[in-house]
Amino acid sequence: MLNRLETYYDAVPRSAARAEDFGPLTLFVREGKGWPYYARPALGYAGDVSVADVDRVRARQRELGAPEAFEWVAETTPGLRAAVEASGLTVHEHPLMVLEGDGLPVPEPEGATVRIVGADDPVLPSAVAAPYAAFGAEPSPGAFAQVAARITAGHTHFAAALDTTGTALAAGQHQPVGAVSEVVGVGTVPEARRRGLGLAVTAALVSDARSRGVGLVFLSASDADVARLYGRLGFRTVATALIAEA
């Protein structure tokens, strides 16, 4: 299973980024506008990663004006953490969770409708904005068009929990590559929290992924408390996702 996830992790950025080879590491560089990417272990590499390897990538990231960020799975590349920390970056741990069945049923949230949102759907701007609002941020001016383009291309699929006026209270997306898809960016606006909306959105994303032939759905929970919530859907922790940043 972890090998399948490694293949996915290597493939998913390539729809919007170019890959630069740094031996044991691959740096993904955003093509055009949008969220910046990161470096991660080169697919299939099983050797050591040195501090010098990490420093070379960080120097290139600074040259590009990109965040000095690395993402990887602890159990797949166990030696990378020491090199990254020795380079001066801070490492954060997140439960890596998978769902192989259909998932457990969750209650329909009261006062909200949960559905998939298409590229031409008038609620898409609200759906894109909701996860940003969950973290006190706002989307960039071009974010809506970028998400619409990715939906049209089949790179991402959006779901939202909408109130009676059609305003998104929570939203998220999944990004399929073949028979694997990751649920990402699930967030609920602060005033609508503790209503089960994020879990309902995740359930809708899982259902959509299954309808598209996805056999393995996974996600990274922000912490153990959030992991327990996803456990109510049937997700189980299989590894630890690590994110390092300056």
Account of the 3D structure:
This protein is an alpha+beta fold. The protein is 31% helix and 30% strand. It is built from seven helices and eleven strands. It has helices at residues 2-11, 51-64, 80-86, 124-134, 143-153, 197-211, 224-231; strands spanning 17-22, 25-30, 39-41, 69-73, 90-99, 113-117, 157-162, 168-177, 180-188, 216-220, 236-245. An eight-stranded mixed sheet has the order 4-11-5-10-9-8-7-6, with helices on both faces. It has a three-stranded antiparallel sheet with strand order 1-2-3, covered by helices on one side.
The rough form would be described as globular
The rounded Rg comes to 18 Å
Order of helices and strands: HEEEHEHEEHHEEEHEHE
Distance N terminus to C terminus?
A: 30 Å
Summed up, the helix count is 7
- Class inferred from helices and paired strands: alpha+beta
Strands, total number: 11
Taking strands numbered 1, 2, ... along the chain, how are they ordered across the largest sheet? Answer: 4-11-5-10-9-8-7-6
Low-confidence stretches: none
Sheet with most strands: 8 strands, mixed
User: How large is the share of residues in beta strands?
Assistant: 25-35%
Rounded mean pLDDT is 96
Q: Assign a percent range to the helix content.
A: 25-40%
